[in-house]
Amino acid sequence: MGELQTHELTLYSIILFLLFETLVEIYLTLRQVRVYRETRTVPKELQNVMDQDTFEKSRVYGLDKANFGIFRTIVCDVVIALLELYCGFIALIWARSVQIADRIGLNAASEIQVGCVFVLVLQTLGVMKEMPFRIYGTFVIEERHGFNKQTAGFFVKDQIKGFIVSMVLTIPIVAVVIYIVQIGGPYFFIYLWGFVGVVSFLLITIYPVYIAPLFDKFRPLEEGELKSSIHELASSLKFPLGQLFVVEGSKRSAHSNAYFTGLFGVKRIVLFDTLLVNKGLPEDDPTLTESDKKKGCKNEEVLAVLAHELGHWKLGHVTKNIVIMQVQMFLIFLAFSQLFTYAPLYQAVGLPAGEKPIIIGFIVIVMYVLAPYNTVISFAMTIISRRFEYQADAFAQELGYSKNLGQALIKLQLDNLGFPVHDWMYSAWNHSHPTLLQRLERLKTDGKKQR
Predict the structure, then answer these.
(1) Is 283 a catalytic residue?
(2) Domain boundary assignment for the chain
(3) 102 is catalytic
(4) Among 22, 84, 179, 185, which is least packed, fewest CB within 10 Å?
(5) Which of 309, 355, 398, 423 is catalytic?
(6) Which pLDDT tens digit goes with each residue over 345-366?
C-alpha cells in the first residue's frame, strides 16, 4: 500500500507542478495580451521612424500570435499532456512498441531494439499532435500577416525531410545511450556525458555543411562592397572567416536573421536574404515582389548587425554557452544516474511493477522530475543571454556602429512587425534578447558615456 501511495504521490506532484508552471506562463501571456489591447499609439522614442499603420499591424500580429499561443498551450500542455500523464500514455506506447518489435522481426526482449521502436512511435505521434498547430500557425497566422512564403507542397516536403533527418540522428543516439547505461556500471553517467558531448560537437560541425542545405538553398554572397566590408571587419577582429553565404530564407518566411557557424578553425557567416535590401538582388530582378522591394538593411546596417554577432565570438559568449551546456548535461546525467532505479517513477507513468525501461526513465526524470530545476535554469539562461546581448551591442558600438546598429534594429523590428511595447514580467520571463526600446536606450546611454 505504501508503494502505491508513493507512486501516486509522485504522479500527482508532477502533474501539479506542470499545471502550475503552465498557468504561470498563461498568466504572463495574458499580461502581454492586455498590453496589445491597450497600447494604441507609437512610443515617443519611435515616432520618427514608425508610422501608425505599421504600429497597428504589429499590434494585431502580436495579439494574434499571443491568443493562438494561449490556445495551443491549453490544448497541448494542459489538456493533452496532463491527460497522457494521468492515463499512462507513455506506458501504453512502450507496450505497443514491444508488440511492433516482435511483429517486424526484432528482438522484443532487447531493450535497445524496443527503445528504438519506442522513440520512432513516440516522435511520430508527437508530430501528428503538433501538425494542426504548425499548419494553422504557418498558413493562417503567418499568411494573414504577410510572412508565410511556403506553398503547401514545400511545407509537406519540409516536414517529411525534418522528420526523417531527426529520426536518422536520434535513433542511433538513443541506442548508444541505452547501451552505455546497461554496461557502464555505477559511473555510466560520465561515459554518457562524454558520448553526448562528442555527438553535440559533431552535430554542430556537420549541421551547416551537410544538414542545413537539405532544407534551404545557400548561395555565396556576391562580390561587391558588402562582401569586401565584411571581410575587412572580420580581418580587423582576427575572426577566421572562410565563406560568406546568403540563405534563401524568404522561401520559408519573410523574417530576417544572420549567424555564423563553426567551432574550430575556419568559420562561415550566413546572411538571410531577407536581411539584405531587395534580398541582395538587383531592384529589377523579376523574382522580387512589390512587398520585397525596399525591405532589408543597407550595407552599413548589415555590417552593424554582423559586428554585434562577431562581438559574441570575440567576447567568448559562444565558448561560455558551450561550457554552461556541458555542465548542465553533466548534472542532468548525474541526477539521472541517482534516480533511474527508483521504481515509483516508472509506476507513476503507468508501467507495471518491476519494469524500468531506461529510455522512459530518462524521459520521466529529465522532463518531469527535474522540471522545477529546468525552469530555474531556463530563467537563469534568459538573464545571461540578455546580458550577452547588451555586451555584444556595446562591442559593436565601440567599433563605431552605434548609429547603424540602432537603425538596423529598428528596421528589423519594422520589417518583422515586432511590437515595441512589452509587459515587464512577460518580457523578463520570455525574452532572451532585451526589447528594442531597451537596446536603443542602452546604446544611447553608453554613447553618452563614451563621449
Answers:
(1) no
(2) 216-296
(3) no
(4) 185
(5) 309
(6) 999 999 998 899 999 999 999 9
